[in-house]
Amino acid sequence: MPILVRVPTPLQKLTGNRGEVNASGNNVKEVLANLEEQYKGVRERLYDESGTLRRFINIYVNDEDIRFLQGESTKVKEGDEISIVPAIAGGKRA
């Protein structure tokens, strides 16, 4: 079941400089595991040492934040899109 995964620029060196890749799985967790099978090193960038998604990584399924769905258990189906979005911090105080 191919799912389109949009890969942020910092992770594209792991995906052969591709911003979009296909992965498979029935839920977000399985899709991310499949990404690691295809592109070694993705997992350590997305998960901390305890196996929890890093706080600064946001995952969206069809533009919906998984934190407001079922987290990594959010079901996906063929044709869905997953976006991996690293949080951006910083800025200048006025």
Automatic annotation (TrEMBL):
Coiled-coil region(s) = none
- Short name of any one Pfam family annotated for the protein: ThiS
Q: What is this protein called?
A: MoaD/ThiS family protein
InterPro entries assigned: Beta-grasp_dom_sf, Mopterin_synth/thiamin_S_b, SAMP1_3, Sulfur_Carrier/Prot_Modifier, ThiS/MoaD-like
Q: Which NCBIfam families match?
A: SAMP1
Q: Which organism is it from?
A: Tectimicrobiota bacterium
